[in-house]
Write a structure and sequence with these properties.
binds zinc ion, 7 helices, single chain, alpha+beta, Muramoyl-pentapeptide Carboxypeptidase, domain 2, two-stranded antiparallel ribbon
């Protein structure tokens, strides 16, 4: 079987023209294609995904929820919230919360898994209010682009103090030891609003991989940023849509920060 496959491959190779004989089309042929590739359907229309989100889709906009989602115990939930996370990540969270408690810091989660349909509704509500798709996308991930659909990502309750409070200070010093990384940190604030509450489980992170800002280099590379640089494209930020000084995530039903 393997020998026959090899024979077929060598026949194909013999029939294929040499690369130099192929006239390569001008790259302008691809103009506009990135808009088409990164697009979502919201309110019965196809919308091009804005620059800052392109290449960052985390899954299909109709992806089913992970099979191992688990409810967080009362001790790990923010008041009035009912977050769910994938069970292995919940175990990590519980261990991290115990470590934080030994330091006198209470770790509580406001938001965990969120399905892509919720992201779509967030857009539809805002479009109906007259806002543009690009403006909304500054603070709300398009359907299929929110890390919350992974079930590995959580918004912490920062006690109303945002990055100025003890919860964030503890997370910034220690969360990487538990494989958690701040997804939209101050270092990328020109590309996405800074969300000090939003952390994603990435798996074990060797200290050597951490930048001065406490971020794994691979994460910055995935965002198109190099350690220590400013945001990759200040112009990508639409005017008027940002609330850069937010301290906490807004409510999922009506707020602005829902990446
Ligand atoms: Zn979040």
């Amino acid at each position: 079987m393997a020998r026959r496959a090899l024979a077929v491959l060598s026949l194909l190779a013999a029939a294929a023209p040499a690369a130099a004989q192929v006239a390569l089309p001008d790259p302008s042929l691809l103009a506009g294609m990135t808009d088409w590739v990164d697009s979502v359907v919201v309110a019965d229309s196809v919308h091009a995904v804005p620059e800052q989100w392109r290449g960052l889709r985390v899954g299909p906009a109709d992806a089913p929820p992970p099979a191992d989602l688990a409810d967080l115990p009362d001790s790990l939930r923010a008041r009035g919230r009912e977050p769910r996370l994938r069970a292995p990540v919940l175990a990590v969270l519980a261990a991290m919360a115990r470590a934080a408690a030994r330091d006198g810091v209470a770790i509580r989660v406001r938001s965990g898994y969120r399905d892509p349909d919720t992201q779509r509704r967030l857009f539809e509500t805002r479009l109906a209010q007259g806002r543009t798709f690009d403006d909304i996308a500054w603070g709300v991930a398009p359907p299929g682009y929110s890390e919350h659909m992974l079930g590995t990502t959580m918004d912490f309750d920062l006690g109303g103090q945002g990055a100025e409070g003890p919860v964030y200070a503890w997370l910034a010093r220690n969360a990487w030891k538990f494989g958690l990384v701040e997804s939209y940190p101050e270092a990328t604030a020109g590309v996405f609003p800074w969300e000090p509450w939003h952390w994603r489980y990435h798996g074990p992170i060797p200290p050597v991989e951490l930048t001065e800002a406490g971020l794994p280099r691979a994460v910055l590379a995935a965002l198109g940023l190099v350690p220590g640089s400013a945001a990759r494209d200040e112009a990508a930020r639409p005017a008027g849509g940002a609330e850069a000084a937010r301290l906490e995530p807004d409510d999922e039903a009506g707020g602005a920060a829902n990446n």
